[in-house]
Amino acid sequence: MAMIEFKNVEKYYGDFHALKNINLQIEEGKTVVLIGPSGSGKSTLIRTINGLEQIQAGDLIVHGENISKKKSDMNLLRKNVGMVFQHFNLYANKTVLENIMLAPRIVLKRDEKENREMAEKLLEMVGLADKGNSYPDMLSGGQEQRVAIARSLAMKPKVLLFDEPTSALDPEMIGDVLEVMKTIARDSDMTMVVVTHEMGFAKQVADQVIFMADGTIIEKGSAKEFFENP
Ligand code: ADP
Ligand code: ADP
Protein backbone atom coordinates (compact mmCIF):
# COMPACT_ATOMS: atom_id res chain seq x y z
CA MET A 1 0.00 0.00 0.00
CA ALA A 2 1.21 3.51 -0.74
CA MET A 3 1.47 5.42 2.54
CA ILE A 4 1.89 8.71 0.66
CA GLU A 5 0.72 9.48 -2.85
CA PHE A 6 1.11 12.73 -4.79
CA LYS A 7 -1.01 12.99 -7.96
CA ASN A 8 -0.43 16.00 -10.19
CA VAL A 9 0.23 18.20 -7.19
CA GLU A 10 0.75 21.95 -7.69
CA LYS A 11 1.84 24.38 -5.01
CA TYR A 12 2.07 28.17 -5.32
CA TYR A 13 3.32 30.83 -2.96
CA GLY A 14 1.36 33.73 -4.42
CA ASP A 15 2.53 33.84 -8.04
CA PHE A 16 5.56 31.69 -7.37
CA HIS A 17 5.16 28.12 -8.63
CA ALA A 18 6.94 26.08 -5.97
CA LEU A 19 5.81 22.51 -6.84
CA LYS A 20 5.07 21.64 -10.45
CA ASN A 21 3.07 18.53 -11.32
CA ILE A 22 4.47 16.32 -8.59
CA ASN A 23 3.69 12.60 -8.98
CA LEU A 24 5.12 10.32 -6.35
CA GLN A 25 4.25 7.18 -4.42
CA ILE A 26 5.92 6.27 -1.17
CA GLU A 27 5.26 2.78 0.11
CA GLU A 28 4.71 1.98 3.77
CA GLY A 29 7.90 1.35 5.72
CA LYS A 30 10.21 2.85 3.12
CA THR A 31 12.80 5.59 3.53
CA VAL A 32 12.87 8.24 0.84
CA VAL A 33 15.58 10.88 0.62
CA LEU A 34 15.01 14.18 -1.20
CA ILE A 35 18.04 15.89 -2.64
CA GLY A 36 18.56 18.87 -4.92
CA PRO A 37 19.75 22.45 -4.88
CA SER A 38 18.61 25.03 -2.36
CA GLY A 39 15.27 26.51 -3.35
CA SER A 40 14.21 23.51 -5.46
CA GLY A 41 11.13 22.78 -3.33
CA LYS A 42 12.30 19.93 -1.09
CA SER A 43 11.18 21.55 2.13
CA THR A 44 7.91 22.66 0.56
CA LEU A 45 7.22 19.11 -0.62
CA ILE A 46 7.64 17.53 2.79
CA ARG A 47 5.71 20.32 4.50
CA THR A 48 2.70 19.51 2.31
CA ILE A 49 2.68 15.97 3.73
CA ASN A 50 1.76 17.12 7.23
CA GLY A 51 -0.41 20.00 6.10
CA LEU A 52 2.04 22.74 7.08
CA GLU A 53 1.70 23.89 3.47
CA GLN A 54 -1.53 23.71 1.47
CA ILE A 55 -1.52 22.53 -2.13
CA GLN A 56 -3.54 24.33 -4.80
CA ALA A 57 -4.20 21.49 -7.25
CA GLY A 58 -3.94 17.73 -7.53
CA ASP A 59 -4.40 15.08 -4.88
CA LEU A 60 -2.26 14.24 -1.90
CA ILE A 61 -3.19 11.06 -0.07
CA VAL A 62 -1.59 10.25 3.26
CA HIS A 63 -2.49 7.01 5.03
CA GLY A 64 -5.63 6.69 2.94
CA GLU A 65 -6.84 10.23 3.63
CA ASN A 66 -7.02 12.74 0.77
CA ILE A 67 -5.63 15.77 2.56
CA SER A 68 -6.18 18.04 -0.41
CA LYS A 69 -9.90 17.91 0.35
CA LYS A 70 -11.16 20.75 2.51
CA LYS A 71 -12.98 18.53 4.98
CA SER A 72 -9.98 16.29 5.67
CA ASP A 73 -9.11 15.82 9.32
CA MET A 74 -5.97 17.83 10.08
CA ASN A 75 -5.82 16.62 13.69
CA LEU A 76 -5.71 13.03 12.52
CA LEU A 77 -3.08 13.97 9.96
CA ARG A 78 -0.87 15.56 12.60
CA LYS A 79 -1.20 12.41 14.70
CA ASN A 80 -0.19 10.22 11.78
CA VAL A 81 2.67 12.38 10.55
CA GLY A 82 5.54 13.49 12.78
CA MET A 83 8.19 15.99 11.82
CA VAL A 84 11.75 16.67 12.89
CA PHE A 85 12.99 20.16 12.07
CA GLN A 86 16.41 21.64 11.50
CA HIS A 87 16.01 23.55 14.76
CA PHE A 88 14.75 21.17 17.36
CA ASN A 89 12.03 23.30 18.96
CA LEU A 90 12.18 21.61 22.35
CA TYR A 91 10.38 23.25 25.27
CA ALA A 92 13.20 25.00 27.14
CA ASN A 93 11.42 25.03 30.50
CA LYS A 94 10.62 21.31 30.50
CA THR A 95 12.89 18.37 31.16
CA VAL A 96 13.81 15.99 28.39
CA LEU A 97 11.33 13.38 29.70
CA GLU A 98 8.58 15.99 29.96
CA ASN A 99 9.29 17.12 26.40
CA ILE A 100 8.71 13.56 25.20
CA MET A 101 5.69 12.83 27.40
CA LEU A 102 3.75 16.04 26.81
CA ALA A 103 2.01 15.43 23.47
CA PRO A 104 1.08 11.79 24.14
CA ARG A 105 -0.41 12.85 27.49
CA ILE A 106 -2.44 15.70 26.05
CA VAL A 107 -3.30 14.50 22.57
CA LEU A 108 -3.47 10.74 23.04
CA LYS A 109 -4.40 10.75 26.76
CA ARG A 110 -1.87 7.99 27.22
CA ASP A 111 -1.76 6.47 30.69
CA GLU A 112 0.93 8.22 32.76
CA LYS A 113 2.89 5.10 33.69
CA GLU A 114 2.80 3.74 30.17
CA ASN A 115 3.76 7.17 28.85
CA ARG A 116 6.80 7.35 31.11
CA GLU A 117 7.91 3.83 30.27
CA MET A 118 7.66 4.54 26.59
CA ALA A 119 9.55 7.83 26.91
CA GLU A 120 12.33 6.10 28.85
CA LYS A 121 12.54 3.36 26.24
CA LEU A 122 12.77 5.92 23.46
CA LEU A 123 15.46 7.86 25.31
CA GLU A 124 17.43 4.66 25.60
CA MET A 125 16.97 4.02 21.88
CA VAL A 126 18.44 7.43 21.02
CA GLY A 127 21.34 6.88 23.44
CA LEU A 128 20.23 9.37 26.10
CA ALA A 129 18.90 7.15 28.88
CA ASP A 130 20.70 9.26 31.49
CA LYS A 131 19.38 12.64 30.29
CA GLY A 132 15.68 12.34 31.19
CA ASN A 133 15.87 14.90 33.97
CA SER A 134 18.10 17.34 32.08
CA TYR A 135 16.82 20.53 30.52
CA PRO A 136 17.41 21.17 26.80
CA ASP A 137 20.00 23.91 27.39
CA MET A 138 22.17 21.37 29.20
CA LEU A 139 22.39 19.26 26.03
CA SER A 140 24.47 19.53 22.88
CA GLY A 141 22.71 20.22 19.60
CA GLY A 142 23.09 16.60 18.58
CA GLN A 143 21.57 15.44 21.85
CA GLU A 144 18.70 17.92 21.47
CA GLN A 145 17.98 16.60 18.00
CA ARG A 146 17.93 13.03 19.29
CA VAL A 147 15.41 14.12 21.94
CA ALA A 148 13.35 15.75 19.20
CA ILE A 149 13.36 12.45 17.31
CA ALA A 150 12.31 10.54 20.43
CA ARG A 151 9.56 13.08 21.01
CA SER A 152 8.21 12.55 17.49
CA LEU A 153 8.33 8.78 17.86
CA ALA A 154 6.42 8.91 21.15
CA MET A 155 3.31 9.86 19.17
CA LYS A 156 3.66 6.61 17.19
CA PRO A 157 3.25 8.31 13.83
CA LYS A 158 2.87 6.34 10.62
CA VAL A 159 5.16 8.75 8.81
CA LEU A 160 8.17 10.67 10.05
CA LEU A 161 9.41 13.69 8.09
CA PHE A 162 12.90 15.13 8.52
CA ASP A 163 13.72 18.60 7.18
CA GLU A 164 17.51 18.90 7.11
CA PRO A 165 17.81 17.37 10.58
CA THR A 166 21.60 17.67 10.74
CA SER A 167 22.13 20.99 8.97
CA ALA A 168 22.24 23.07 12.14
CA LEU A 169 24.65 20.73 13.94
CA ASP A 170 28.38 20.88 14.46
CA PRO A 171 30.04 18.24 12.27
CA GLU A 172 31.00 16.03 15.20
CA MET A 173 27.34 15.77 16.28
CA ILE A 174 25.97 14.68 12.92
CA GLY A 175 27.01 11.04 13.08
CA ASP A 176 25.02 10.25 16.23
CA VAL A 177 21.85 11.72 14.80
CA LEU A 178 22.27 9.86 11.51
CA GLU A 179 22.84 6.61 13.43
CA VAL A 180 19.52 7.04 15.22
CA MET A 181 17.79 7.71 11.92
CA LYS A 182 19.40 4.63 10.39
CA THR A 183 18.21 2.52 13.31
CA ILE A 184 14.64 3.74 12.83
CA ALA A 185 14.82 3.15 9.09
CA ARG A 186 16.13 -0.38 9.48
CA ASP A 187 14.42 -1.66 12.62
CA SER A 188 10.96 -0.13 12.47
CA ASP A 189 8.15 -0.08 9.93
CA MET A 190 8.22 3.72 9.90
CA THR A 191 7.77 5.48 6.58
CA MET A 192 10.44 8.19 6.46
CA VAL A 193 10.86 11.16 4.14
CA VAL A 194 14.17 12.92 4.65
CA VAL A 195 15.55 16.15 3.18
CA THR A 196 19.29 16.02 3.68
CA HIS A 197 22.63 16.80 2.13
CA GLU A 198 24.13 13.72 3.76
CA MET A 199 24.82 11.53 0.74
CA GLY A 200 26.31 8.77 2.87
CA PHE A 201 23.00 8.43 4.68
CA ALA A 202 21.12 8.39 1.36
CA LYS A 203 23.43 5.74 -0.01
CA GLN A 204 23.15 3.49 3.02
CA VAL A 205 19.47 3.65 3.94
CA ALA A 206 17.35 5.21 1.20
CA ASP A 207 14.97 2.87 -0.58
CA GLN A 208 14.33 5.68 -3.00
CA VAL A 209 16.26 8.85 -3.81
CA ILE A 210 14.45 11.78 -5.38
CA PHE A 211 16.27 14.60 -7.08
CA MET A 212 14.40 17.89 -7.29
CA ALA A 213 15.19 21.02 -9.24
CA ASP A 214 13.09 24.10 -9.85
CA GLY A 215 9.94 22.64 -8.25
CA THR A 216 9.91 19.39 -10.19
CA ILE A 217 11.12 15.85 -9.67
CA ILE A 218 13.96 15.48 -12.15
CA GLU A 219 14.91 11.94 -11.31
CA LYS A 220 13.95 9.15 -8.93
CA GLY A 221 15.43 5.76 -8.34
CA SER A 222 16.86 3.34 -5.84
CA ALA A 223 19.96 4.45 -3.96
CA LYS A 224 21.84 1.85 -5.99
CA GLU A 225 20.66 3.29 -9.31
CA PHE A 226 21.40 6.77 -8.09
CA PHE A 227 24.89 6.35 -6.79
CA GLU A 228 26.32 3.52 -8.83
CA ASN A 229 25.43 4.52 -12.38
CA PRO A 230 27.94 6.61 -14.27
P1 ADP B 1 14.43 23.80 -0.62
O1 ADP B 1 13.89 23.08 0.58
O2 ADP B 1 14.70 22.88 -1.77
O3 ADP B 1 15.59 24.69 -0.30
P2 ADP B 1 12.03 25.36 -0.39
O4 ADP B 1 10.89 24.40 -0.49
O5 ADP B 1 12.42 25.84 0.97
O6 ADP B 1 13.27 24.74 -1.14
O7 ADP B 1 11.73 26.63 -1.28
C1 ADP B 1 11.38 26.51 -2.64
C2 ADP B 1 11.13 27.88 -3.19
O8 ADP B 1 9.93 28.40 -2.62
C3 ADP B 1 12.22 28.90 -2.88
O9 ADP B 1 12.38 29.72 -4.02
C4 ADP B 1 11.67 29.67 -1.71
O10 ADP B 1 12.17 31.00 -1.69
C5 ADP B 1 10.18 29.65 -1.98
N1 ADP B 1 9.41 29.71 -0.73
C6 ADP B 1 9.48 28.85 0.29
N2 ADP B 1 8.64 29.19 1.26
C7 ADP B 1 8.01 30.31 0.84
C8 ADP B 1 7.02 31.14 1.40
N3 ADP B 1 6.49 30.89 2.59
N4 ADP B 1 6.61 32.19 0.66
C9 ADP B 1 7.12 32.44 -0.54
N5 ADP B 1 8.07 31.69 -1.14
C10 ADP B 1 8.50 30.64 -0.45
P1 ADP C 1 15.39 26.46 4.88
O1 ADP C 1 16.24 26.43 3.64
O2 ADP C 1 16.10 26.13 6.13
O3 ADP C 1 14.06 25.75 4.71
P2 ADP C 1 14.52 29.08 4.16
O4 ADP C 1 15.39 30.25 4.40
O5 ADP C 1 14.33 28.53 2.78
O6 ADP C 1 15.02 27.97 5.16
O7 ADP C 1 13.08 29.37 4.71
C1 ADP C 1 12.85 29.73 6.05
C2 ADP C 1 11.38 30.14 6.20
O8 ADP C 1 11.09 31.26 5.36
C3 ADP C 1 10.42 29.04 5.79
O9 ADP C 1 9.32 29.03 6.69
C4 ADP C 1 9.98 29.41 4.40
O10 ADP C 1 8.65 28.95 4.15
C5 ADP C 1 10.04 30.94 4.44
N1 ADP C 1 10.42 31.49 3.12
C6 ADP C 1 11.38 31.04 2.30
N2 ADP C 1 11.44 31.77 1.16
C7 ADP C 1 10.50 32.71 1.29
C8 ADP C 1 10.05 33.79 0.46
N3 ADP C 1 10.58 34.01 -0.75
N4 ADP C 1 9.06 34.55 0.91
C9 ADP C 1 8.51 34.33 2.11
N5 ADP C 1 8.87 33.33 2.93
C10 ADP C 1 9.84 32.53 2.54
Automatic annotation (TrEMBL):
One Pfam family here: ABC_tran
InterPro entries (alphabetical): AAA+_ATPase, ABC_ATPase_HisP-typ, ABC_transporter-like_ATP-bd, MetN_ABC_transporter-like, P-loop_NTPase
Top-level EC class as recorded in UniProt: hydrolase
PANTHER family: AMINO ACID IMPORT ATP-BINDING PROTEIN (PTHR43166), PHOSPHONATES IMPORT ATP-BINDING PROTEIN PHNC (PTHR43166:SF4)
UniProt entry keywords in alphabetical sequence: ATP-binding, Hydrolase, Nucleotide-binding, Transport
Record's keyword annotation contains rRNA-binding: no
MF (Gene Ontology): ATP binding; hydrolase activity
Family from the record: Belongs to the ABC transporter superfamily.
EC number(s) reported in the record: 3.6.3.-
Domain of life: Bacteria
Protein name: Glutamine transport ATP-binding protein GlnQ
Domain ABC transporter: 4-230
